[in-house]
Amino acid sequence: MPHYEPLPEMCNGLDDDCDGDSDEGLGVSVTCGVGACAKTIVACTDGTPVDCVPGTAGTEICNGIDDDCDGSIDEDYQGHPTTCGVGACASSGTSQCVGGAHTCPPARTKQGAAASQTGDESGRT
Predict the structure, then answer these.
(1) Assigned domain for 95 exists
(2) Which residues contact 15 (CB under 8 A, 6 or more apart)?
(3) How much is the pTM?
(4) Is the residue at 99 inside a domain?
(5) CA–CA separation, 33 vs 49, rounded Å?
(6) Which residues of 15-51 are buried (b: 16+ CB within 10 A; e: fewer)?
(7) pLDDT band at 109 (very low <50, low <70, confident <90, very high)
(8) Residue 18: which domain range?
(9) d(CA 15, CA 25)
(10) Total structural domains in the chain?
(11) Do 35 and 68 contact (CB within 8 A), yes or no?
(12) Residue 36 CB partners (closer than 8 Å, separation 6+)
């Protein structure tokens, strides 16, 4: 009967290290990519190695997600002209992206203080 030397376990469906189990310890989760491109896979499935391939980068939009997969969130957001609020709280300007949400420039009350973006016409923020 031939004698086999144990080898390091490899993802191949065989008992390479001669301990009675195959591919043990190789079914670990692996993550690759960042932001919306991040993927997590099991590196060894049914004796077959699985490569981790990140998702495809998209266009950065204001949503609190790293859509273009560069490690920064909403950094390329381009504001657009907007008008919001009513009455003394009406405001026009360029929108901004704050915390993944579009915001409207705050209105100025007669006292010169910025009004709350929630429609508070009192001038308190």
Answers:
(1) no
(2) 21, 22
(3) 0.64
(4) no
(5) 18
(6) bbbeeeebbeebeeeeeebebbbeeeeeebeeeeeee
(7) low
(8) 1-56
(9) 12
(10) 1
(11) yes
(12) 55, 57, 58, 65, 66, 67, 69
